[in-house]
Amino acid sequence: MVSYIVKRLLSLIPVLVGISLITFLILRLTPGDPAEAYLRLSQIPPTEAAVAAVRAELGLDRPLPVQYGEWLVKALTLDFGRSYATHRPVWDEMMLLVPATAQLAGVSLLITLLISIPMGIFSALYKDGWFDNFCRLLAFTSASTPNFWLGFLLMYFFSLKLDLLPTLGRGSWEHFILPAVTLSFAYIATYIRLLRTSMLENLDQQFVLYARARGLKESWVIGRHVLKNAMLPVVTALGMSIGHLLSGSVIVESVFAWPGIGRFCVSAILNRDYPVVQCFVLMMSFIFVIANLLVDIAYAWLDPRIRLKEES
Q: Which of 107, 111, 208, 275 could form a disulfide with 81 if both were Cys (CB 3.0 to 4.6 A apart)?
C-alpha cells in the first residue's frame, strides 16, 4: 500500500505540470492586455509608454516559453508572484482566504452527510413508499435549481422577510447557515439517490440472504454488511465533492460576500490578474488529485479485495 501511495504521489507531477501549462496558455490567448489592467487597478493612465514599462516589469514582453519556465521554477518554491490588484504575494493572499473557504466547505460537507446518509438508507429500506417518493422529488428539485438562485431565495426569505439570519459576510455560526445550505443542497439529493441505488443492489446479493439465514439481526445485516458495501460509490462521490465544494464555492461566496478564495478568484478573473488565477487553478487541481488518492485508500479499507490486488 505504501508503494502504491508513493507511485500516485509521483504521478501528480506530470498532471500538475500539464494543468499549469494549459492554464498558462489559455490566459495568454484571451483578448486584452494584462498590463493595461494592471495600470487601471493602480489608477495610472494606460499610455503606450506606461504599458511598455509595465510589460517589461512583469516580464510580459518575453517569449511565452521563457515566461512559463520562470513562473514554473518560482512556483516550485510557492512563489506565484504578486497580485496585480493588491500588489501582495499571491500565496500569502491565498493562505489568508483558504480558512474561510475550508470552513464553509467543511460545514457544507457535514450537512450533506448528516442528511443524505440517513435519508438514503430509509429510502432504500422503504422503497416506493411516501418517503422514497419525497426523496425522488428532492433529487429532481435539486438537479434543476441553480446555486445562485437558491442563495438569493434563501436570503430573501430568511434574511429580508423573516429577519432570522444575517445576509452577508462571515462572523458568527449564523453566517454559515445560508451559504452552507446553498452549497450542500445539490449534493444532498445526489448522495441520497446514489446510496439508495447502491443499497438496493446489495440487498439483492446472496451474502445478505446467507446472513439472514444464519439468524443475524436485521440491523446487523444492514449496518455491517449492506451499508459498508453500499458506501463504496458514495466514497467515490465524496472524493470528487471535496474538490467541487472548494472550487464550486465561487458562486456561493460571491452571492453571500463570503471572504474566501472563490470570491477572490472571481475578482482576479475580471481584473485579468494572471498570478492569482494560475495559483488558484493549480491549487484546486492539487486538491482534486489528493482527494482521489484518499478515495482509493478508503476503497482499500472498505473492500479488502482491492488491497490484496495491490499487494499482489
A: 275
Asked whether 158 and 165 are in contact (CB, 8 A), the reply is yes
Taking the C-alpha atoms of residue 167 and residue 27, their distance in angstroms, rounded to an integer, is 34
Range list for CATH 1.10.3720.10 in the chain: 92-311
CA atoms of 116 and 188, how far apart (whole Å): 5
What cell was used for 152?
A: 438569493
Rounded to whole angstroms, the Cα distance separating 256 from 176 reads: 10
Q: What is the pLDDT of residue 310?
A: 47
The residue among 107, 38, 93, 109 whose CA lies nearest residue 265 is: 93
Query: Are residues 208 and 230 in contact, defined by beta-carbon separation less than 8 angstroms?
Result: no
Q: Which amino acid is at 95?
A: M
Predicted local distance difference test score (pLDDT) of residue 12: 77
In the predicted structure, residue 3 carries a pLDDT above the cut 80: no
10 Å CB burial of residue 57 (0-12, 13-18, 19+) is exposed
Q: Domain spanning 92-311 has what CATH number? A: 1.10.3720.10
Question: What is the pLDDT, as a whole number, of residue 302?
Answer: 62
- Percent pLDDT > 70 in the chain is 91
Closest to 179 measured CA to CA, from 68, 60, 171:
171
Q: Is 82 helix (H, G, I), strand (E, B) or coil?
A: strand
The answer to whether 131 and 204 are in contact (CB under 8 A) is: no
- Read off the DSSP letter of residue 31: S
C-alpha span between 261 and 167 (Å, rounded): 19
> 3-state DSSP call for residue 59?
coil
Burial group, residue 16, by CB count within 10 angstroms (0-12, 13-18, 19+): middle
- Residue tagged 494592471 (cell numbers): 38
For residue 113, the model assigns a pLDDT of: 87
Output the pLDDT for position 20: 84
Q: pLDDT tens, 143-191?
A: 777 878 888 888 888 888 887 877 776 777 788 888 888 888 878 888 8
